[in-house]
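Recall that a protein's primary structure is simply its ordered list of amino acids. Everything else, from secondary elements to tertiary packing, is in principle encoded there. The following example makes that idea concrete.
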Amino acid sequence: MGKELYDQYDVAKEVFERADAALGFKLSNMIFNGPSDELTLTYNAQPALLTVSIAAAKVLESHGLKPDMVAGLSLGEYTALVCADSLSLEDGVVLTRKRGKYMQEACPPGEGSMAAIIGLSCAEVEAICFESSKLGVVTGANYNCPGQVVISGDKKAVEDACRRAQERGGKAVPLAVSAPFHCALMEPAAKKLKADFEKVEFKDPTIPVYSNVTGRKVTDARGIKEILIQQMTQPVLWQVDMENMIFDGASVFVEVGPGKALAGFGRRINPTIRFVQFCSPRDLKTIIDLYEEASVI
């Protein structure tokens, strides 16, 4: 992922080189050549995804294509902050590598899990989690779009919640994740990350950044650290983020970096809005055309 951008654009190549220098090892080589079992480890995957996404954003910026507002789901919130010049790329890759390490350490392998619950309302999923919480921690972790809530927590409690969801007519899809993110089990990770944040400077964003925790836009540096710490143990309100961005005038959403999940969520939130993905030079003309048509990106 990102190799075409690296090969064709100096601004993208510079992003990869800066990330390598900040981390002290060739993350770029791992991204391009694997091995995949190393790259998918969360403490490698998190800075890798941030790096590829920022490389894509820098290519767009080099063509005069700059967003009016930004948001990112979970890890993507760090990408959004880098795009908004609130967090440096170097600090971003170092923090996300530590974030991944702390998340993995917070819950031993096999003890936690996550699952997407599809076809039920938020209220129904929350009621199910309450019923299953007698077996352990289980809560809503990602409120992605109408009819889809990701739950997270202790494995037995999540499995029980999945069973209850299916009994109520919903669909439960277990997720292949290394830890149960965005729930109380991540409290030890949040405490460790908070200590690292004390050494990092956040600046006022140059454009609004919409918070996962509140769904509201952040326009100054005050409180950004606390919001990111809260994000570790609290749910991601992605649907609220999207709805507020649309209310504030966004007419085209560009998903930078690998994957198309956010565009899929967006179409279910508001099918009248345009959603496109950019992680390859092949996508550039489509993005340029949309920028010329749109009023707010």
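The first strand starts at residue 70 and ends at 71. Residues 3-106+185-293 form a domain with the Malonyl-Coenzyme A Acyl Carrier Protein; domain 2 fold (CATH 3.40.366.10).
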